[in-house]
Amino acid sequence: MARAVTTQRKTINTAVAWAIGLLIFFPILWIIILSFKAEGDAIKTPIEVLSSAWTLENYGVVQERSDYAKHFMNSVIFAFGSTLLGLAIAIPAAWSMAFVPSKRTKDILLWMLSTKMLPAVGVLYPIYLLFIKLGWLDSRIGMVIVLMLINLPIIVWMLYTYFREIPGEILEAARMDGASLREEILFVLTPMAIPGIASTVLLNVILAWNEAFWTLNLTAASAAPLTAFIASYSSPEGLFYAKLSAASTMAIAPILIMGWFSQKQLVRGLTFGAVK
Amino acid sequence: MGRITLEKVTKRFGDVEVIPPLDLTIEDGEFVVFVGPSGCGKSTLLRLIAGLEDVSGGEIRIDGTAATSLPPAKRRLAMVFQSYALYPHMSVRKNIAFPLRMAKMDQAEQARRVEDAARVLNLTDYLDRRPGQLSGGQRQRVAIGRAIVREPAAFLFDEPLSNLDAALRVGMRLEISELHKRLQTTMIYVTHDQVEAMTMADKIVVLQAGKIEQTGSPLELYRNPQNKFVAGFIGSPKMNFLTGDVAQAMDAHTIGIRPEHLSLSTDTGMWKGVVGVSEHLGSDTFVHVDVEGQSEHLTVRANGELDLKYKQTVYLTPMEAHIHRFDGDDLRIA
């Protein structure tokens, strides 16, 4: 039953929600504002910053100094490459956990999740050494694999949750109809789980796009994505607030826009299974 | 062809033996119904035949070839599920064509078979709809359509009518029987409803706790139940059982008499009792009578126009030829 909410109460709730929303969004907003200010104005007090002249110069400088397109392409390859590779592994894994669970399935799922609690720096050394051995330092393939492995537990968990909502009888029907395991997953399970898979892809693209720890440590130039591109502007030689902000804005804009347009799908993905 | 034989087929879930070694032969073209109370293992048995569950022991043969370790797809069986199990993201046409597509049949032949099945099942107008836009009965027909297009060796039905309302159920029951008459293909049908079993089957297999209690034609089971369980399970309303002196007088531990084999009189008869509830169905009246010395009341199938008062004294007389006698182990005494 819906609870009765007074208009006054609604207004207060809305105001509070907006306030919290703005508070969270403020740093991003400030970065965007700073990116349109001259370097000298950007370090002044907030009032002075707002009243100073607007300029596009930072974007020009950033574009001149570094190859945005290359970093952008690297980010796209990492985000989508790691997510798609992750899906290829996670769909069969989640299928087996959801439809042919064993006594250990729950333990495996929890163990997988527990790896997300491990501080990344704890495995940096062995992974760095492995990368040297494999010749993967500053390579796209290496980053796609590392980012995929980092997010794999989340992809498996999300898909497992979606798959469990699909009645097993439908998959049995496919088996009776002559579908092989591959056909069953490809033609029946996956199309039925499209909304769930879409949410999973979205979330993991965002996570991989924003990943900085591994990209900063394992890439230098040729495989550096946008996160490394931002970091290159926080140099010890001087303060480049405005340029750093311009670089950040350029780095977060694509994912911000993508997130904005897919809000519904994202919220559904994150709350799926919680409410029925 | 669709002759299915089970030899010493066993199924265990962990330490629990749900199907003790079981032998059964299903002849080609037969309509066999597995019937029994819920949890008796009838669905498990069907799933073993389908290959959706692995047997723990024994051998399954389909048309003489060993099928025990074949995957479901290779057994040439089609199954209709209780929940219909249609593919919600495909149109009716694609649902029905799915097994043909999996068999890599050419497009023209697929289209022809789908059209044929749709015509037989009155689905032609719904071919481009999604399952979600159909009624329960239509969904059931799509599920049947999906089963018939591939011309399987046998059809397996797992309680296909239990999600339908009563009126629709009777209609679909008839449609499935007609389908069997026309196709002459082996059908194995699982139900807990003995009326479905009696009306549809060539052969009924009564199961209890994974064990076959009796196998036979509906009338064989009705006339000669091998034990008290089958006697009580087959027939509606169920058979009356009497114990004590009445049974001992007939050299039995328990005697059974069906409601339709008792005659009721207001002035004379073998057993005296008082009328409890009378259920008027129009064609018949089911009268529940409390007979002296019996803990359970007896049901009598009487004339539909009969008008009896509550607590009225009546006399019941069983028809001699229809009395079933059982020993202390509930087995039939010949």
Which architecture of the largest domain in chain B per CATH?
3-Layer(aba) Sandwich
| Number of domains as seen in the coordinates of chain A | 2
The CATH topology of the largest domain in chain A corresponds to MetI-like fold
Q: How many extended strands of chain B?
A: 18
The largest sheet of chain A is: none
Evaluate the radius of gyration of chain A. Answer: 23 Å
- Distance, first to last CA of chain A: 15 Å
Q: Please give the most extensive interface between any two protein chains, plus how many residues each contributes.
A: A-B, 18 and 23 residues
Sum up the overall morphology of chain A in one term: globular
Strand content of chain A: under 5%
Gyration radius of chain B, to the nearest Å?
A: 24 Å
Kindly report the CATH topology of the largest domain in chain B.
Rossmann fold
The residue-averaged pLDDT of chain A reads 87
Order of helices and strands of chain A: HHHHHHHHHHHHHH
Number of DSSP helical runs of chain A: 14
Low-pLDDT segments, ≥5 res of chain B: none
